[in-house]
Design a protein that fits this description.
heterodimer, A: alpha/beta, Rossmann fold, four-stranded parallel β-sheet, B: alpha/beta, 17 helices, globular
Chain lengths: 381, 398
């Protein structure tokens, strides 16, 4: 079976997320709790019996948000809100917004005002993660989230159920990491675009189904794995809040590049760390959150992002780093200059591509990206 | 409008602020560490610890008022900082790279403290500065609060205040003096009480004092609350206001309307806005912005009380709370309409503002508009567009 056939269900899910929900509802009759990407404990939502549904944004009709969100508000949030205003998220019964920036901090109340849902919750993440107080607070905040979900579900989330959900998600992350690993070794096997389509498509699919598919994919691809071509590709680290549009990856595919590391919320950061299945599951969820790959949303003194990125580039022997930055993403932009400087000091060429949901600026991106890849040694196809 | 008499206290404030900046410059040579802090931050702890608190936001506001925000920002923009970031931050970051310093050089910190009740821009700016100056940084993290007192948030902030005290003790080598904190808190209480009495005179009809006066006189309550100087200053200002009330001196001639304004003023256009309103005989009487410094501390439980006051500040509250608070101010000051500033530098205030305006119009029946601009950067100010909005508004008032 060819890769394209194997990953077809993920492409379909990414392009038609509503269909996933309709099918799931038809089969299970349950309720769907949406979340904004991706610092949300999906395991809790799942253990409560709901379908955790990642809202991956949209590229059309962002003007539907204009009456409420200024044009200088982050396009991811604008696009999600526009979907809601337009009635295209009507299948959600609940929504969790992780407070990772000023925009997400203000969003849920506005959403509730315009399109109220039966269950709506702000997940108030601690923004400093290095001191003792952060863990203690996060444990309490997770308990609060758990109680809220239990109230909405009408039953409690048992430790057993939560552990089962944790194992399900761990299995999923392990399979995804396996794919990333195979991709780094054998770039032509899966392809950059396909790899990230799997991650993003999975966000709107029931996790059980994702794992079923991934087991098959990993098995089949394993058979044709050929590590001989590892050195023929331009090894790239990508960095940013959210990777969009995925067409960027087509350009990289066409230019003989392989993404061997990233820190996107809809990329490797989403699946990087498992939750310890032993002990108190809520504490395990907290620990996972506090130890995630650094992002601009948190002050991480112990693991500064610029050090993380530099180490990643070194460890993966990157030829270059591409920042893909969402316009109007304040936290990301504040980090940029220091990240860039650190990478340049360590000898890694880097470029920033600015992107947004809704408006395709692919032509311009292509020109800049091409020039960058040529500079660092790409040959193109 | 330049018809009103200048406040006598204005000279006193200029002198006080000049002394404050002088003290800041001299601090390091006297062995007093310079601590960057944010406007809504328990500065009382900083004063009690004998550190010199410096407010980089103030630097951004002054750069805005002097109409040089774009000039300073361009040095930051040249390094990839986007024009869309908070203008205060762009001014502060730009100044360290700029060849010229039109508002003087921003004071370099020995350590940095930031509370994120106001926004997420400040912590990111302070992180950048902490790296640039290679100075230790402490983030006092406050989750957002709803309508009611939030015990979870409160206990988290209390614990962090203790962590902060340890952080200071470790850096200074001195044991923190809680008695000194009590003294400082008492000064803060008194300055806040006086400041709010002063703001309340804007409810008189006609009033001797309005929002634009408050913008001028607020520097000490922001930077020096917790000191006896701030108390003395607001006592003098209050006396002067009482005298003005007696003598019938008003903030604007022939006041006819009172207006509610949100939030931070547009600093480079302060006079322009003030004139626009005054020429229509409209006094901008109240804004939640100048009412931010309305703290009341319980000296018997200082840390708890600091946590309550700073984490439960309006800017860290939910949509519903903030709508209620605006309406309460409108009612208390008897306003005839409201003007809301969608400030692209301040997302926590600007996001949701259109929905809030609609809701307030429905609930109160008052006319009100929202206009778009930036608090410091004139590149985002279109006089023609703002004038159209204001004209619409004034027509509804009449």
């Amino acid at each position: 079976m060819k890769t394209a056939e194997l990953i077809a269900p993920f492409v379909d899910a990414y392009e038609n997320p509503a269909r996933q929900v309709e099918q799931w509802k038809a089969m299970h009759g349950g309720r769907v709790v949406g979340f904004l990407m991706t610092d949300v404990p999906e395991e809790l939502i799942h253990a409560a019996g709901f379908f955790p549904y990642g809202i991956t944004g949209g590229n059309k009709g962002l003007d539907k948000a204009d009456a409420h969100l200024q044009t200088w508000v982050c396009s991811y949030v604008r696009s999600c809100f526009a979907l809601a205003v337009d009635g295209r998220l009507d299948y959600l019964e609940g929504l969790i917004v992780p407070q990772t920036c000023d925009t997400t901090r203000m969003l849920l109340d506005l959403w509730n005002h315009v399109r109220p849902l039966p269950y709506m919750e702000d997940y108030r993440l601690p923004r400093q993660v290095g001191r003792g107080s952060a863990r203690k607070y996060l444990l309490n905040e997770l308990e609060r989230m758990k109680e809220g979900l239990e109230r909405f579900a009408g039953h409690s989330i048992t430790t057993d159920n939560l552990k089962k959900s944790i194992m399900l998600y761990n299995h999923n992350r392990q399979l995804m990491r396996k794919l990333f690993d195979m991709h780094a070794k054998n770039p032509s096997l899966i392809g950059n675009r396909n790899l990230y389509t799997v991650v993003n498509g999975a966000m709107v699919m029931p996790r059980e189904r994702v794992n079923e598919l991934l087991v098959k994919i990993v098995d089949q691809l394993q058979e044709s794995l050929n590590i001989a071509e590892e050195d023929k590709y331009l090894r790239l680290v990508l960095s940013g809040t959210l990777l969009t549009p995925l067409e960027i990856l087509d350009l990289i595919d066409n230019w003989g590049g392989v993404v061997i590391g990233d820190d996107f919320q809809n990329g490797y950061r989403y699946i990087e760390a498992d939750v310890t299945p032993e002990g108190d599951p809520v504490a395990a969820l907290a620990d996972r959150q506090l130890n995630r790959i650094p992002s601009a949303a948190y002050d991480i003194e112990q693991k500064p992002r610029r050090v993380f990125l530099t180490n990643l580039a070194k460890e993966k022997k990157a030829h270059g780093v591409i920042f893909v930055h969402l316009n109007f993403c304040e936290p990301e932009n504040f980090d940029y200059y220091d990240n860039l400087t650190a990478l340049q000091k360590a000898g890694f060429p880097a470029i920033r591509i600015e992107s947004q949901f809704g408006q395709s600026t692919l032509g311009q991106m292509q020109t800049r990206l091409q020039a960058f890849l040529e500079m660092i040694g790409g040959e193109g196809s | 409008m330049t018809t009103k008499n200048v406040f006598k206290s204005a000279d006193l404030m200029k002198e006080m602020m000049a002394n404050y900046y002088k003290a800041g410059k001299a601090a390091r040579s006297k062995g007093i560490p310079v601590a960057w802090v944010t406007a809504v931050f328990p500065v009382e702890i900083i004063y009690a610890a004998g550190l010199f608190p410096y407010y980089p936001e103030n630097f951004g506001a002054v750069a805005g008022a002097k109409k040089v925000a774009d000039q300073l920002s361009s040095a930051a923009e040249a390094r990839g900082y986007a024009r869309d970031l908070c203008a205060y931050a762009r001014c502060g970051i730009g100044d360290v790279y700029a060849a010229e310093h039109p508002v003087g050089e921003i004071l370099a910190p020995d350590l940095l403290f930031c509370c994120n009740t106001q926004c997420g821009s400040l912590p990111k700016w302070f992180e950048v500065a902490s790296r640039f100056y290679n100075a230790p940084y402490f983030l006092l993290d406050s989750p957002r609060v709803g309508i009611e007192t939030d015990e979870l948030c409160k206990s988290y902030v209390i614990e962090q205040l203790h962590e902060m005290v340890s952080f200071i003790e470790k850096l200074t080598g001195h044991t923190f003096d809680y008695e000194k904190l009590s003294e400082v808190l008492a000064f803060s209480n008194e300055a806040c009480r006086l400041w709010n009495e002063i703001l309340d005179t804007a409810a008189l009809k006609p009033a001797p004092f309005g929002f634009f006066d408050a913008c001028f006189h607020m520097a000490p309550i922001v930077t020096m609350r917790g000191t006896v100087e701030a108390v003395n200053y607001y006592r003098a200002l209050k006396e002067e206001l009482d005298e003005r009330i007696e003598r019938g001196i008003t903030a604007i001639p022939e006041e006819r309307y009172k207006i509610y304004f949100d939030h931070i003023p547009c600093w480079p256009k302060l006079r322009w806005f003030s004139d626009q309103f005054a020429s229509r005989r409209a006094l901008v009487a109240v804004s939640q912005y100048t009412h931010s410094w309305a703290y009341s501390f319980d000296l018997a439980r200082p840390m708890e009380s600091l946590a309550e006051n700073y984490s439960h500040e309006f800017v860290n509250r939910c949509f519903e709370y903030r709508v209620k608070r605006k309406i309460n101010f409108m009612q208390k000051y008897g306003v005839d309409g409201f003007v809301l500033f969608s400030n692209r530098s301040c997302k926590p205030n600007a996001i949701g503002l259109y929905a809030k305006a609609k809701l307030i119009r429905e609930k109160t029946g008052l006319p009100g508009i929202v206009f778009e601009a930036d608090m410091s950067d004139l590149r985002f100010f279109s006089e023609a567009q703002v004038l159209i909005k204001l004209e619409q508004f004034f027509e509804q008032l009449a």
